[in-house]
Specification:
single chain; Immunoglobulin-like; alpha+beta; 2 domains
């Protein structure tokens, strides 16, 4: 078999060309991934920055405080700290929310934006004592 200089140049050109194309594809993919991650991070940061946080404690099978006030038209993050050794379920039909919080555990849930009014909630496992209301003004 006779190998000429022209055949070697064609082989070398196609080898480098295919690697160059692979490198371009890799860089475009990497750039897309970096931009997507950045956009997602900024979205999460701005979403969290505007949310007000309100703490609610479960102790002795009661919600403390039993009345929470939040502003109308705002999204609020409710952080529930269960200091009892038994689980409790935060439930509200008006808010369409329910969340089981294990004994000694914490949980958070988002409510709102809400219109002005009263939104009762209760503890599913201790309904007689675990009562509360969210007042939206």
């Amino acid at each position: 078999m006779v190998i000429s200089r022209v055949n070697i140049d064609i082989v070398n050109d196609s080898y480098y060309h295919s690697h160059y194309l692979a490198w371009i594809f890799y860089m475009k993919s990497l750039f897309t991934l970096v931009m997507f991650t950045l956009a997602l991070s900024l979205h999460s940061f701005y979403a969290m920055a505007g949310d007000e946080e309100i703490a609610l404690v479960i102790q002795n099978h009661q919600f403390l405080p039993s009345e929470l006030q939040i502003p109308a038209g705002k999204k609020v993050r409710l952080i529930i700290d269960n200091r009892d050794s038994t689980p409790e379920e935060f439930e509200s039909f008006e808010l369409n929310r329910e969340k089981v919080i294990g004994g000694g555990g914490k949980a958070s849930l988002f409510i709102g934006p809400l219109k002005p009014g009263r939104y009762p909630f209760f503890g599913e496992f201790n309904q007689k004592t675990a009562q509360g209301v969210i007042i939206v003004k």
